Each structure stands twice: as structure tokens, then as C-alpha cells.
Amino acid sequence: MDTDRGVPTIAEAARQIKAGMLSPVTLVKTCLSRIDSHEPTIQAFHTIFADEALAAAEIAEKEIESGNYRSPLHGIPIGLKDVFYLKGHKTTSNSRVMQNFEADEDAAVVTKLRDAGAIFMGQLNTYEFTFGGRPTFDALYPPARNPWDITRSTGGSSSGSGAAVAAGFCLGALGSDAGGSIRTPSAFCGVAGMKATFGRVSAYGDLPLSFSFDCVGPMTWTSEDSALMLQVLAGYDERDPNGVETPVPDYVAPLNDGVRGLKVGMLRHFYTKDFEAPREIVKAIDGVGNTLRNLGATVEEINVSPLIDWHAVGRVILPAEAYAIHEENLQNRWEEFGPLARNRMMLGSLVRAVDYIQAQRRRTELLEEIETALAEYDVIITTAMLTPQPPLDDKAPFPFLDVPMIAVPFNLTLHPVQTVRAGFFDDGMPIGAQIIGRNWDEITVFKVAHSFEKDAGQLKRFPDLN
Amino acid sequence: MAVDKKPAADDDAIFEGLIRASGVPVSDQEKKDLRKAYSSLMGLATRTRKPDRSWDVRMLPVYSPKPPKGS
Q1: Which residues of A touch B66 (CB under 8 A)?
Q2: Is ipTM beyond 0.90?
Q3: Which stretches of chain B sit within 8 Å of chain A by CB?
Q4: Residue A271 lies in domain
Q5: Is residue A282 part of a domain?
């Protein structure tokens, strides 16, 4: 196991850049050197912007030297999942259907990062059209590999984002999440990831998978870094019909306020009874609760409907919406889809209107259950994964129908969730936990995540890329 | 008269009809995989139904959480 990550966190780098102790050019060169050495193995990127990144870093350096420091992301190397409009570049979502698509403007979040002074290192791998399940070998680009073990899945669909952050190719990355696509690769790759409250971050210019679930968010090494990125990404955008006009609070200042006095609900039955997860997962997630109790929080077990009920609702709604989005291309350009993605989307053609509506009604009831729990508890903790990272070449066409989706419940309920590294399997692979908060209260979620990370020390282990 | 309790949704004829109606050409192998997946999917769809559910449990009209008070 490597004892040095090779790159700083965003928070560390930002402090040094602002103080003139670290050059953005040096930082970008460090990331490019790591990419040169390890990208052929990890395959995190679809496209690498080496020259553009260096040129942008030189501009950032001059701006900062002349006193024009824009934000804590100024001069910070960031990767973009290849689902966001990026003027001057193709946006493919890893599909042959989109291989010639070039938007004539940036996605809302790309504009925000650009304005904040972030340096774009490249476009990151994804599962075809961001449909999760298993990596696709039959799409436009080969799948990303998990830096902790290149024979294992990164999780998806933000597969390249998880791999690139874990490998230190960039300090943060953009992901998107309609059924765990930020949280699963974060957990599988041992990094932090935030799915903010639905409507908090504009999804304008994000190639869609689902009308009612799609969220955009940061993936980083620490939760402090997620807070720094969300600070830039959050905010109302009238171009996103799901956007909500509400103020964006300061996510960073309260990070060290601690958890004393907070009430934490442990949603254990999801991973102990509804699905019997391996003992390492149970130990790691229970350990998050124990750490928070030791830090002064009140920790109690809570109960909601069985995980399979949440899974059922998500599995009916998600393919139906994905099919509706892609119907025309599936009918007319079906041969350009990889068979795995095509079949996963075809499931949506089998969902009748009455099935979809009944699932949406059940969703209303389930949402009320979490709202009731969060009226009493400040946050809820559960696992972000039910099984170890599967082999990369597992080709089961519909694995998500049989193993419950642990991330889906909080797409249904819209609440903010942070994934943190909770521990490790005996074989050294990371385990992730989900911290769920009240709508719009990402602050408390970040506070709990940051307190846990500081106390538990799980982030002191790094993947060995050699 | 006895009623056949076989779930109507998990039915070969309905499956074939929905695939045909989609207008998407699928191979025999894909259709075989999808038929299996369809059974799993309809099992899940059954779970979303509750016989005692009140009329006033409606689907959410707008999929955004309400803004916080005072904003």
C-alpha cells in the first residue's frame, strides 16, 4: 500500500496556491506526470487536455500573482465526466450514438468551474449513457479500472471520475447521479462524493438518464474538498426546470463545528437484514456510528420499509425514464448502442404506464418515511455498497434487477447524501458509507462527514499504482 | 368461476407485444435475456402496489423539494 497519495487535497493546494507557495503549473505538471505513468493502465479518461491544462495553469498563475485570486478552485486540476457540454469538444457519454456531438456552449457546472479558475484536465470515462450496473466493454471507450485493484470494477457510472481522483490524476472531478452514479464509484474507489439536494446544482448541459433523478455533484479525496467544490457548483439556474431558487450557504466555514448534540439514525437493516452484506461492510458502517457517538452525537437505530421496496420503485422508474429519453435513437440507431446499454434501456419499453404510476405513488409513501425519520434525526447513516467491488469483466446483463440498489433510495427521496470512506475489506479494497441529510442541509452532512474523516483516519491509505 | 391467479403483467403475449410496439429490433438472444429480466421487473412492479392504499396517495406532481422556509 502506497503511503503517499502524490498530490495534495484541494484544501491543501488552495491554501498553498493562495499563499504563493504552490504554482498551479507545477500542480498540473504533477497530475500530468501521474497520468503519463498510470493512465494506460487505469483508463480513467476519454480525452486528456494536456496542452490546454498547462496553458490554463500558466494563465491562472499570472492572475493569482497579480492579485486576482478567484476562488479555492483557482489553479486546481479538475476532471469532467464525459456527459457535460464542453464547448470546443465532443460530449459522448461513451456512446457511438454521440461520438460526433459537440455542444455550442458549456454545461452550467462547467461554466461555474471555469469562472472559479479550475483547470480542466480532460473528459472522464463513464458507462454508456450513464446507465449503471456493470462496466461496458462494448461501448465507444474501454472501461476505467479501479486504482486499488485493476481487475475490479470502479462502480459507475462516474467510473472515470472515481478512478481519476483515487489515482491522483486530478484533485476533484464532476460526476452525475441518477441511481448512485456518484456514490457507488466513490465508495468503490475509496473517495468522497456528494449528491446534493435535487435542484441544488444545475443539470443544464448534463446528458440525461432520468427526468426525476439526475443530479450533478463533486467527487474528491475528502469531504472538505467536496464542500469546496459544491460551494462553486451550487446555485439556481433558470435553464434547469428542476432548479430551486434558494440561497447557497457557506459549506466550508462550519466544517469544524463538530457533531456534539447531533442525532444520528443508523439504517442498519438495509445491510444486515434486508441484504446480508459481508461482515467487513457491517463492521465498517457500524464503525461510522461508533465514531460519531464517541465524538458526542446521539446514535440510534432506525427502521423504514425493507430495501427491496425502495429498489422496486427505482427499478421501475429509472429504465422507463431512460427509455423515454433514448427511444428515438433506440428505434433508429439501435446498432450504434453497445448491447449492454441497449438491453438495459430496453427494459424501460416493458414498463407500462400503470406500473410507472404505481411506482411513483409508492415513491411518495417512501419519501414520507425518510422525511419522518429526518424530523427526528439530523442525519441518517447506511452503507454505500452491499457487496465487494465485482470483477471488471462480470458481464451479467441485468445485475441490478437481482441485487438491491443501495443508493437508489435517496434518489427517490431527493435528499443530499455524502459518501465517505468507512473502512476496508480484508483484501485492502475500500468500503464506503452514505450520510443522508435533510433537504437543503448539506452543511450538516458535510460537518458529520468531515468529523468522521478527521477522527477515523481512514484516508491515510492510498492505492498503490505500481 | 375460479380466477387464474397468474400475474397478468408477467405474460409472454404482453412481453412480445411490448417489444414489438417499441419498434426496436432485438436479436433472439437479447429477447431471451429481456424475457427473464421482464419477469424480475414485473415482480418488482408488483411490490410497488398496495391493495389497501388510499386514493389520496398520489404521484408527486413536481420532482423538486420545497425551498427552505424563509428563502
Answers
A1: 244, 439
A2: no
A3: 9, 15, 18-19, 21-26, 30, 33-34, 36-38, 40-42, 44-45, 47-50, 53, 57-60, 63-68, 71
A4: 10-460
A5: yes
Q: Is residue A39 part of a domain?
A: yes
Domain annotation covers residue A36: yes
Structural domains counted in chain A: 1
User: Above pLDDT 90, what percent of chain B?
Assistant: 44
Contact A280, A423 (CB under 8 A): yes
A163/A329 Cα distance (integer angstroms): 30
Q: Which of B11, B15, B18, B24 to mutate to test the interface with A (most CBs of A within 10 A)?
A: B24
Q: What is the pTM of this model?
A: 0.96
Q: pLDDT tens, A433-456?
A: 999 999 999 999 999 999 999 999
Tell me the shortest Cα–Cα distance from A36 to chain B, in angstroms: 39
Residues of B in contact with A361 (CB under 8 A): 48, 53, 57-59
pLDDT tens by residue, A111-122: 999 999 999 999
Is A5 part of any domain? no
A360: CATH: 3.90.1300.10
- Cis before residue A157, ω within 30 degrees of 0? yes
Minimal Cα distance from B14: which residue of A? A350
